[in-house]
Amino acid sequence: MLLCVGRVREGLQMRTRLHALDPFVLVFNAFTVDALWLAKNDRAAIKMLQTDLVAGAAHPFVSRQTALIYGVQGKHREAADAILKSAHSYDPVIVTAAAKFMAGDWSVPAGRSLALFDMLYVFSDTPEQALGFFETNLTAGMWQAAEAPQFWHPSPKFAALRATRRFKDLMRNAGVVDYWRERGSPDALCRASGGSFACD
């Protein structure tokens, strides 16, 4: 949850402790990948994604995380290949569209959802579309906290997403802004806005 609200340093410390206590739980390792990536330790994140325990699951979460890491590095072909690995465990139409999108085919119709892969829109000219998956689920009464850590990556693409009104509205509607008002804004937002997060 620390990662979900942007407290990357604290979240990484806790994830590291958890991994040391039990290194064999798939979901723990998958979330540790998030923490490593957010801390710009791409090499360790990729290494963990490629372990038999994580990679063997062939879960779309693993494909998406790998694609995000490669996407930030500008390795779009590798990102597309990673996405395709989840074709047998997720909607193949969405997987194919997401892979083509990351390979440079930006012709995905405007407004079309890539569902679990919506975060990939952060690499497009309309990064706010990356929020569609979260907005849809929040409207249905589910805040996808487990997917939220990606918002806090320090790269310019994610900083641009965080600067949008749509992102700020999502954080407000999910109750995250209330948390920040009580506990303080995360470092990424403070850096992006010169010391404070404009909630209104």
Describe the SSE topology.
Blueprint: H1 8-21, H2 26-38, H3 42-49, H4 52-55, H5 60-72, H6 76-84, H7 92-102, H8 132-139, H9 156-162, H10 165-173, H11 176-183, H12 187-192
Spans with pLDDT under 50 lasting ≥5 residues?
190-200
CATH architecture: Alpha Horseshoe
Q: How does the overall form come out from the CA principal axes?
A: globular
Number of helices: 12
Overall pLDDT confidence? 84
Broad structural category = mainly alpha
Here the CATH topology equals Serine Threonine Protein Phosphatase 5, Tetratricopeptide repeat
Order of helices and strands: HHHHHHHHHHHH
CATH class assignment: Mainly Alpha
Number of strands: 0
Distance between the termini: 24 Å
Largest sheet: none
The overall number of domains is 1
Report Rg.
16 Å
Helix content: 55-70%
Strand content: under 5%
Structure notes:
This protein is mostly helical. The protein has one domain: Serine Threonine Protein Phosphatase 5, Tetratricopeptide repeat (Alpha Horseshoe). The protein has twelve helices and no strands. The protein is globular. The chain starts with 7 loop residues before the first helix and ends in an 8-residue tail after the last helix. The model is unreliable at 190-200 (pLDDT under 50).
Entry keywords:
single chain, 200 residues, mainly alpha, Serine Threonine Protein Phosphatase 5, Tetratricopeptide repeat, 12 helices, globular, disordered C terminus
